[in-house]
Backbone:
C-alpha cells in the first residue's frame, strides 16, 4: 500500500502551525500520531495535499497538575503515556483504564489524546470518560484561544467545533467533588476492537446519597451523549440497586444507536442498560477505577 | 504408539528443535516479499470495484506513458486459457475477459520500477463497466430469476452431489426418534499473516518463480499449462511461507500476473498482495446452509442420516469442487451408521471465491452433527459422551461410503477427554452461567487421490550422503509452511538411516532440484512424504550395513546401526562409525544415495465422488470446552479446552501439540469471532484485520492437548495426521458448552455475543 | 522555521537503527517500515496489513513498540529504532529468542519478529510480568499459527531468568 503524496510541514511553534492550517484550509490535515490520518490516506478516504506535523510542539506532550485548575493533559500525549501517568493513576484511574481499553500496545504508543478527540469517531473511548469528568477543551487558533466544555466539542461523526486554523492543545480535568468514575467498553474481542457500546459515569456520593452524577454514552449516537434523564433519576436520591437498574433502563432509552456490522440497535440498547448499571456500580463502590 | 512408545526410537519421538527456528527468530528468514532479484520490477493488479459487470473498454494509454512504468497488460496481452483445478471446472483466466464476477476481480496489471509508480499507474487506467445485477445470496442463487455468474453453469450450480447409501427412509421409519435441524455456517477466511506473494523471472524460454506456496508441484503444473510451457521449463521454488492453511494451494494472481509481466518486460517482477487483496483472492471457508435429519434407536444408536447442503462457492470454482464433496464424505467417518443420503449443492455467487481451508468443507457439517447429537442425547436423557460412545467408530472397519479405517482410538479419546476435563465432576454441577460441552471430529491423513488425474506417486525422496560420510542431505518436494515438515522429515530420515538429527541437511520444495511431492495439504506429508523418506533412509541403511558387514567380517543379519555407530550384535568391540562406512562406500562404489516414493493403495468405492474422503488413514479427536457466559451481554468466555487426539505415532511431540493448538485456535476463531461481510452491492465491508476479528492473545482459553496410544499400520512408524483434525470439533464443542451453560442453542456461526443474548431473550420469553 | 518537504522531494533523515547511525533520503510519504525494509534491507520487519491492525511490522522506537507501517520516516527522524535484526548480539541469541525456539513458539515465523520485540519491550519495563500482562503486551501481535499459548510460555520463561 502507499500513502498518496503530500507536502509535509513541521512547524516549530503553535502559532506557525495555526498559520499553516489557515493558509491551506481544508487541503491540510494535522498529523499528531498518525494512526488515524495515515490509515485514512492509505485507504483512499482522504487525500490531503498538506500534513502539518505537531512533532516539534513538545509543550503539547505532557500531563501536569495545576492546583486550582486541575489535571492538564497535552493533546500530543500518547494513550500509553496517559495509561501509565502517575498523576492520572492517582486521581482519575478511570481515564487510564479508558486509554488502556483502546487498540493494543503499539497503537497506544502512536495514537494521541488529541487525535482521538479530534477524529470524533462515535465509538472513541476517551470522550465518554473525559466528559463524565467535566473535561474542558483548550483550543488555540491564529487569533484567539478558547476553552469549551468537551461535551460541546463534538458535532457529529468526524466533525468537531474546530474552525480553520484551530488546534486542540490541552484537555483539562477540573478539580471536582466526584467520589468515583468508571468507563466500561464492550468490544467484540479483548483487544483491537472498537466499542459496540461504551458507558462512562462519574458520581459524587455522600452517605449513600447521590449528590451528583454524570452518565455519558459512547458509540450509540453520532457523538458521545449525556444520559440526562438517567442522571435526573439518580440525582439527590438514595442509592439502591433498584435505582441503578432504573437508571440503566432510562439510559438505554436515551441512546440512539444504529445497526452496523458490529451490532444491532436492540443489542446496543441492551448493552447501554447493562454497562450503565455496571459503570455506576463501580464508580459508586470503588472510586475512580 | 504415542509419546511413550516412541521412546524406543533414537530420533523420532523426540521434541528436537525446529530446523528453521533460528532463522525465524533472528529475522533472517526471507519470505517472498523480502527477496530482491536484480532488475526486479514491482507488479500491481487493477481490481474490479463491481461485483458483476461487463467490461466495455479499457484504456491503458495514460498508464503506459507514466515514467517508470515498464508494462501494462489486460486480458488481450496474456493467455486466455481457462484454469482451475478440475478440468470440467476450468472457469478462471489470468485477467478478466468480457466481464468481472466479483469485487476485486483482476482486470489489468502494471509493472513499474517501484510500488508507488505502479499504484499511480493503476489509477491512470480507465475502465468502462456496464454494471450487472449480482448474485449475492447463495440460498437464492439457483432461483430462476437470478443472473448467471458463469455462462456454463446453469442456475449457478457449481457442483451438484447426490449420494445415497442404504435406505434412509426405512432407517427413519425404524427409528425411535428422528430430528431435523437447520444450521448456518459462516464465510470465513484463512488470514495467513503473510499475504500471497510471487517473483517471476523469464529468461531464455524458462520461467522461474519464487512463491509463497503450499505446493510447488501443483503451481508448476498449472502455470505450465496456462502458459503452454513444458513443465521442465517452469521452475517453482518455495521460499519461507508465512502461513497457508489451504489458501496458497492454488496459484493466484500473484504467480500468474508476475509471470505474465515478466514475460512482457523481460525483467523479473514481484507481486505481493496487500491485505485487502488477500480477502479478494480468498479461497477460504464456504458458508454452508445445512439441513440435517438423523434417526436413532432409543439407545441412541444412529440408524440413518440425511444431509442437505447448499454451500456458497463464490466466483470461481478452483478447489471448491473438492470442498463440496468433503462436506458429505466426512460425516459418516467418526460415528458408525449404515444409511446415509447426501444432497449437496455448491453454488456460484458474485463474491470472492471459496475453496480449501483447514478441514476442507468438513468443519461446518461437523458443527451441525455435533450440535444435533447433543440435542438427541437430551431428548433421550443420555449423557453426550455416552451417546458418542454408543456410536463411536471402531478400528478396522469401513464406513458406509467405503472409507477404510485402520487404526481408530476414538473411544479412548472420549474416555480420556472426559477424565482430564473432569466431565463427571462438572456436568450439571457448575455454577450458573458456566457450562461444559463436547465436540468431536476426524479427518483424512492425505487425500487418497491427487488433485488432478495422474499416475505420479504422492511423494518421493532422495537422500545423498556426503562423501566424507559426516552428513546426509535429504531432498524432498514436501513443503514446510510453518507446520514443521522439514523438521520431522529430517528426523525420520535420521531414524531410518541410523544417524543423528543434527547430521541431516534438507533441501526442499524446488521443482527443479527436489523430487516430486504434491505438497502441504489435507495433512498428507507426515504419512505420505514420510513413507518416501523412510524408504530412502532404509535404502541408505541397507547399503551401509552391507558394506559394514564386509568390513567387520560379520553376517549382515548381525550388523545394526544406532546413532551413527555401526555395531555387531553380541560383539561390542567390533564397531565402526557411519562416517567410516559411508566414506568407504563412496571410495569403492561412488555416491551413496537412497530413493523412496509412495503411492497409496487403491482406495474407495465406485460411486460418483468416491475418491473424495479416501485416505490411507484417519485421525480422531474429542474436544471438551468449559465456558462462562455473561447472559446480560451474551459474551462467552471459553476458559478451558481439552483436546484428546488419536494421531498415531508421534514423531515430534512439541510440534504435534503445537499443531493441535493452532488448529483448535483456527476453529475457535471461526466458531466465535470471524465472518466475512459484504454490503448489498457485494462489496466487502470488513476486508481488514480490524473488523475481521482473528482472536488476540487475550481472547484464547487455556488449552490442554493430550494423546491416546495409537499405531497406524498404513503410516511409517505408525503415524497419522494432526494438522487439521483439531479444527473440526471446535464449533460444535462451543455450541454445546453454551447450551449446557445457559440452556440456549445457537444454530448459526459465528457464536457472537449478540446471538447468545438474543437466544437468551427467546428463552426468557418462552418461560 | 517550519521545515517543508515538498511532494515528491527527497529529504535526509537520520536514525539510530540497532545501535548504528543511519542516514537516508526519503520522501514525505515513505513509512518507517518501507525505509527499514527497502533502504536498509532490514527485511525481518514484516508487512502484514499495513494499517496497524496486525503487529507484524512492530519495531521499537525509543524502546517502545510501534507499528512501523503507521510511522512516517520523517517523523522517526532523530529517533532510535530497534528491529529484530538488532536483538541478537554478536551472533548470540537473546534469551527471548532462545525460549521461542525451545517452546516451539514459532511455526510459520511471520509474526515472530514483531512478537519478540513486543516481548522484549515488556520485559525491559516489567521484568517479572504476570501471564495476563504478557498477553496484554502481545495483544497487538496477531498470530494465526500457534494460538499464542507457547508464545506466552516462552516469554514467561525468558522472564524467569531475569534477576
Residues:
Amino acid at each position: 500500500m502507499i500513502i498518496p503524496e503530500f507536502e509535509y510541514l513541521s512547524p516549530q511553534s503553535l502559532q506557525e502551525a495555526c498559520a499553516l492550517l489557515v493558509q491551506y484550509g481544508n487541503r491540510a490535515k494535522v498529523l499528531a500520531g498518525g494512526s488515524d490520518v495515515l490509515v485514512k490516506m492509505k485507504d483512499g478516504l482522504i487525500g490531503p495535499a498538506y500534513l502539518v506535523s505537531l512533532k516539534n510542539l513538545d509543550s503539547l506532550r505532557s500531563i501536569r497538575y495545576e492546583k486550582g485548575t486541575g489535571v492538564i493533559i497535552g493533546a500530543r500525549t500518547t494513550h500509553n503515556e496517559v495509561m501509565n501517568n502517575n498523576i492520572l493513576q492517582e486521581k482519575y484511574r478511570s481515564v487510564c483504564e479508558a486509554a488502556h481499553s483502546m487498540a493494543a500496545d503499539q497503537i497506544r504508543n502512536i495514537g494521541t489524546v488529541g487525535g482521538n478527540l479530534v477524529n470524533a469517531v462515535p465509538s472513541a473511548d476517551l470522550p465518554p470518560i473525559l466528559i463524565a469528568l467535566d473535561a474542558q477543551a483548550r483550543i488555540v487558533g491564529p487569533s484567539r484561544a478558547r476553552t469549551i466544555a468537551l461535551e460541546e466539542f463534538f458535532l457529529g461523526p468526524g466533525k468537531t467545533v474546530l474552525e480553520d486554523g484551530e488546534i486542540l492543545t490541552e484537555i483539562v480535568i477540573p478539580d471536582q467533588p466526584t467520589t468515583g468514575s468508571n468507563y466500561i467498553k464492550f468490544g467484540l474481542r479483548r483487544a483491537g476492537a472498537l466499542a459496540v457500546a461504551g458507558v462512562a459515569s462519574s458520581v459524587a456520593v455522600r452517605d449513600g446519597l447521590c449528590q451528583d452524577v454524570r452518565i455519558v454514552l459512547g458509540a450509540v449516537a453520532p457523538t458521545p451523549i449525556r444520559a440526562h434523564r438517567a442522571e435526573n433519576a439518580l440525582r439527590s436520591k438514595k442509592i439502591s440497586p433498584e435505582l441503578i437498574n432504573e437508571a440503566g433502563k432510562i439510559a438505554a432509552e436515551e441512546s440512539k444507536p444504529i445497526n452496523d456490522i458490529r451490532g444491532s440497535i436492540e443489542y446496543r440498547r441492551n448493552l447501554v442498560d447493562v454497562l450503565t448499571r455496571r459503570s455506576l456500580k463501580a464508580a459508586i463502590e470503588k472510586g475512580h477505577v | 504408539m504415542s509419546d511413550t512408545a516412541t521412546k524406543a526410537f533414537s530420533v523420532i519421538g523426540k521434541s528436537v528443535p525446529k530446523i528453521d527456528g533460528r532463522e525465524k527468530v533472528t529475522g533472517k528468514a526471507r519470505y517472498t516479499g523480502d527477496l530482491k532479484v536484480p532488475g526486479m520490477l514491482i507488479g500491481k493488479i487493477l481490481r474490479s470495484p463491481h461485483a458483476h459487470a461487463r467490461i466495455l473498454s479499457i484504456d491503458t494509454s495514460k498508464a503506459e506513458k507514466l515514467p517508470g512504468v515498464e508494462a501494462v497488460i489486460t486480458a488481450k496481452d496474456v493467455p486466455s486459457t481457462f484454469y482451475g483445478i478440475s478440468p470440467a471446472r476450468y472457469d478462471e483466466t489470468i485477467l478478466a475477459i468480457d466481464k468481472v464476477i466479483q469485487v476485486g476481480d483482476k482486470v489489468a496489471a502494471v509493472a513499474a520500477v517501484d510500488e508507488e509508480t505502479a499504484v499511480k499507474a493503476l489509477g491512470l487506467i480507465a475502465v468502462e463497466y456496464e454494471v450487472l445485477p449480482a448474485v449475492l445470496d447463495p440460498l437464492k442463487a439457483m432461483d430462476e430469476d437470478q443472473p448467471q455468474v458463469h455462462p456454463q453453469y446453469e442456475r449457478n450450480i457449481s457442483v451438484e452431489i447426490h449420494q445415497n447409501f442404504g435406505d434412509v427412509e426405512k432407517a427413519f421409519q425404524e427409528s425411535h426418534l428422528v430430528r431435523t435441524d437447520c444450521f448456518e455456517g459462516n464465510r470465513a477466511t484463512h488470514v495467513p499473516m503473510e499475504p500471497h506473494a510471487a517473483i517471476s523471472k523469464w529468461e531464455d524460454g524458462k520461467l522461474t518463480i519464487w512463491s509463497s506456496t503450499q505446493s510447488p508441484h501443483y503451481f508448476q503444473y498449472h502455470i505450465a499449462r496456462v502458459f503452454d510451457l513444458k513443465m521442465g521449463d517452469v521452475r517453482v521454488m518455495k521460499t519461507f511461507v508465512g502461513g497457508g492453511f489451504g489458501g496458497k494451494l492454488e496459484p493466484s494472481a500473484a504467480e500468474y500476473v508476475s509471470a505474465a509481466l515478466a514475460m512482457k518486460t523481460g525483467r523479473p517482477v514481484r507481486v505481493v498482495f496487500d491485505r485487502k487483496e488477500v480477502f479478494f483472492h480468498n479461497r477460504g471457508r464456504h458458508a454452508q446452509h445445512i439441513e440435517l435429519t438423523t434417526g436413532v434407536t432409543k439407545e441412541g444408536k444412529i440408524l440413518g442420516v440425511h444431509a442437505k447442503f447448499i454451500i456458497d462457492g463464490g466466483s470461481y470454482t478452483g478447489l471448491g469442487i473438492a470442498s463440496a464433496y468433503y462436506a458429505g464424505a466426512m460425516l459418516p467417518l467418526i460415528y458408525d451408521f449404515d444409511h446415509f443420503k447426501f444432497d449437496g449443492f455448491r453454488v456460484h455467487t458474485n463474491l470472492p471465491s471459496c475453496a480449501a481451508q483447514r478441514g476442507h468443507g468438513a468443519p461446518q457439517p461437523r458443527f451441525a452433527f455435533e450440535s444435533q447429537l447433543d440435542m438427541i442425547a437430551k431428548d433421550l436423557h443420555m449423557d453426550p459422551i455416552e451417546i458418542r460412545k454408543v456410536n463411536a467408530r471402531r478400528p478396522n472397519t469401513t464406513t458406509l461410503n467405503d472409507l477404510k479405517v485402520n487404526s481408530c482410538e476414538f473411544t479412548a479419546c472420549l474416555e480420556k477427554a472426559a477424565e482430564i476435563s473432569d466431565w463427571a465432576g462438572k456436568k450439571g454441577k457448575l455454577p450458573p452461567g458456566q457450562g461444559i460441552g463436547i465436540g468431536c471430529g476426524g479427518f483424512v491423513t492425505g487425500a487418497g487421490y491427487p488433485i488432478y488425474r495422474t499416475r505420479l506417486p504422492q511423494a518421493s525422496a532422495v537422500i545423498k550422503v556426503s562423501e566424507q560420510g559426516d552428513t546426509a542431505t535429504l531432498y524432498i518436494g514436501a513443503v514446510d509452511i510453518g507446520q514443521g515438515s522439514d523438521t520431522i522429515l529430517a528426523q525420520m530420515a535420521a531414524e531410518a538411516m541410523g544417524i543423528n538429527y543434527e547430521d541431516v541437511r534438507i533441501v526442499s520444495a524446488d521443482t527443479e532440484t527436489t523430487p516430486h511431492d504434491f505438497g502441504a495439504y489435507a495433512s498428507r506429508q507426515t504419512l505420505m512424504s514420510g513413507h518416501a523418506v523412510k524408504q530412502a533412509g532404509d535404502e541408505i541403511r541397507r547399503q551401509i550395513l552391507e558394506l559394514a558387514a564386509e568390513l567387520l567380517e560379520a553376517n549382515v543379519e548381525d550388523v545394526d546401526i544406532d546413532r551413527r555407530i555401526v555395531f555387531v550384535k553380541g560383539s561390542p568391540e567390533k564397531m565402526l562409525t557411519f562416517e567410516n562406512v559411508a566414506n568407504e562406500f563412496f571410495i569403492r562404489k561412488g555416491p551413496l544415495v537412497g530413493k523412496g516414493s509412495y503411492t497409496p493403495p487403491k482406495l474407495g468405492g465406485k460411486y460418483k465422488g468416491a475418491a473424495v474422503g479416501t485416505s490411507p488413514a484417519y485421525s480422531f479427536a474429542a474436544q471438551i470446552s468449559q465456558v462462562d457466559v455473561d447472559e446480560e451481554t451474551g459474551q462467552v468466555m471459553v476458559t478451558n479446552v481439552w483436546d484428546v487426539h488419536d494421531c498415531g505415532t508421534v514423531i515430534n511431540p512439541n510440534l504435534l501439540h503445537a499443531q493441535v493448538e493452532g488448529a483448535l485456535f483456527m476453529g475457535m476463531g471461526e466458531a466465535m469471532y470471524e465472518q466475512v461481510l459484504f454490503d448489498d452491492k457485494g462489496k466487502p465491508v470488513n476486508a481488514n484485520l480490524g473488523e475481521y476479528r482473528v482472536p488476540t492473545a487475550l481472547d484464547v482459553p487455556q488449552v490442554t492437548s493430550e494423546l491416546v496410544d495409537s499405531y497406524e499400520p498404513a503410516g511409517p512408524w505408525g503415524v497419522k495426521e494432526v494438522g487439521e483434525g483439531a479444527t473440526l470439533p471446535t464449533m460444535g464443542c462451543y455450541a454445546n458448552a453454551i447450551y449446557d451453560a445457559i440452556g440456549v442453542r445457537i444454530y448459526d456461526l459465528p457464536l457472537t455475543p449478540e446471538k447468545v443474548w438474543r437466544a437468551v431473550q427467546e428463552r426468557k420469553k418462552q418461560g | 522555521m517550519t521545515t517543508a518537504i515538498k511532494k515528491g522531494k527527497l529529504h535526509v533523515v537520520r536514525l539510530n537503527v540497532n545501535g548504528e547511525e543511519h542516514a537516508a533520503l526519503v520522501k514525505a510519504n515513505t513509512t518507517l517500515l518501507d525505509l527499514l525494509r527497502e533502504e536498509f534491507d532490514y527485511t525481518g520487519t514484516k508487512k502484514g496489513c499495513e494499517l496497524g491492525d496486525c503487529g507484524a511490522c512492530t519495531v521499537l522506537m525509543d524502546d517502545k513498540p510501534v507499528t512501523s507501517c503507521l510511522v512516517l520516516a520523517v517523523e522517526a527522524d532523530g529517533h532510535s529504532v530497534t528491529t529484530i535484526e538488532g536483538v541478537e548480539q554478536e551472533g548470540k541469541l537473546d534469551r527471548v529468542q532462545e525460549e521461542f525456539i525451545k517452546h516451539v513458539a514459532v511455526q510459520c515465523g511471520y509474526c515472530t519478529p514483531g512478537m519478540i520485540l513486543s516481548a522484549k519491550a515488556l520485559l525491559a519495563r516489567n521484568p517479572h510480568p504476570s501471564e495476563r500482562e504478557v498477553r496484554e503486551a502481545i495483544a497487538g501481535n496477531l498470530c494465526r499459527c500457534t494460538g499464542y499459548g507457547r508464545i506466552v510460555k516462552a516469554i514467561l520463561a525468558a522472564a524467569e531468568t531475569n534477576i
Notes: Residues 265-286 of chain A form the longest helix (22 residues). Chain A has three domains: 7-53, 58-174, 180-283.
